[in-house]
Structures are given as structure tokens and as C-alpha cells.
Amino acid sequence: MKTTFKKNILSLVISTCLLAMFSQTTQARSTHNAQGGANTESILNRMDFDKNGEVTSEDFVNRALQRADKHFSRQDKDADELLSEEELSHKRSSRKHRSMDESIDEEALKECVESLTGLSLKVHLSAEERFNLIDSDGSGSITFEEFSDHKATHAIERFTGLDSDENALISVAEVEAYLAERKALHEARSSCIDEQLLMDEN
């Protein structure tokens, strides 16, 4: 009788502990999801350039154009209102991607990431390719108009990439999907680079 009583008490204690642990885990997940949702809402609000409650391609373009003047001036080191290839590539060269190390096999990296995630890494243009893309008239220098046009085109491309349901609006779900995809790519990329470096050391 005492043994049965002790077993029942022990079972009750274990059940109580498990219930408490489950409640804490559920609460933590709910808090995390709520914070994630709030963060996504905050991102969406910042995307809404004209603050009309909807995020459209115009919001993306207008924000890009607003920043274009500041970005152009910052890179125009000689203040001649033109960007040379050297001026355009200066900022990019100061923050090279980890994969741009000559020891990294870019093709192998892309294949590794795709095999892990089913997603493709973004193609990085060389400094010369990017310059030629922006220098639309082939004059050998970039005017502010060419720079602004490129920024606007790039903004529309970013919007189109986010607007997965093609309804001309960005939703919370689309922002969440983008963030999840970016996180998966980042983690896979880091893992694939580490794998390459380890193999090269052996």
C-alpha cells in the first residue's frame, strides 16, 4: 500500500514537472513568435515609404532614389559629378565577401549551398561588370542620372523578388519567407566554406 502510494506521488511529481517544462517551452515559443512577428511588422512599416499602409514597388523606388544622392556624393571622391570605375568599386572592395577569397572554389560553393538548401546563391558581379551595367551610354564614367536609374531598376528587382504572389504588394508572410530564406542561405554558405577550408588543410 505504501509502495503504491509512493509510486503515485512520484508519478504526480514527474507529471507536474513535465507539465511545467512543457508550459515554459510553449510560452518561450509564443514569445519568440510574437517577437518575430513584431519584428517583421516593423520591417514592413519601414518599407512603407509613403506610410499609406501598403508596401508597393513605388515605396522601394522612392526610398532608393532618396538615398541615391547621398550614395553618389559619398563615392564621388573628386567631386566632378561623375563616378569612375575606381570610385564605384572603392566601397565594395573595402567589404569583400568571405567567399571572394581566392582559396574558395566559387562553383563548388554554389553547388554545395544548392544541395543543402535547394536555393541559389546571389551572383556577384565583378567591379568592371557592375560599372559597365550602370554606365548605360558606355562613356567610361557614370552620371548621377545613370546612377539613379540603376538604383531604381535594382529596387524594382528587389520588390519583384519579394512579391512571390505577384499581387503588387508586400505582405508580412512574404517578408518572413524572405528572412527565412536568407538565413538558410547564410548558414549553408558558412557551412560550405568551412567544409572547403577544412578539406584544403588536410
Care to describe what's here?
With 202 residues, the chain is mostly helical. The protein contains 7 helices and no strands. The protein has 2 domains: 47 residues; 152 residues, no CATH class. Helix 2 runs antiparallel to helix 6 and helix 4 crosses helix 7. The chain is flat, with a radius of gyration of 25 Å.
Output mean pLDDT. Answer: 82
Rough outline = flat
Distance between the termini: 66 Å
Binned, the helix content reads over 70%
Radius of gyration: 25 Å
Strand content: under 5%
In total, how many domains does the architecture comprise? Answer: 2
Largest sheet: none
Task: Please describe the topology of this protein.
Elements: H1 2-47, H2 57-75, H3 85-93, H4 106-117, H5 127-134, H6 144-162, H7 172-201
Helix pairs in contact: 2-6, 4-7
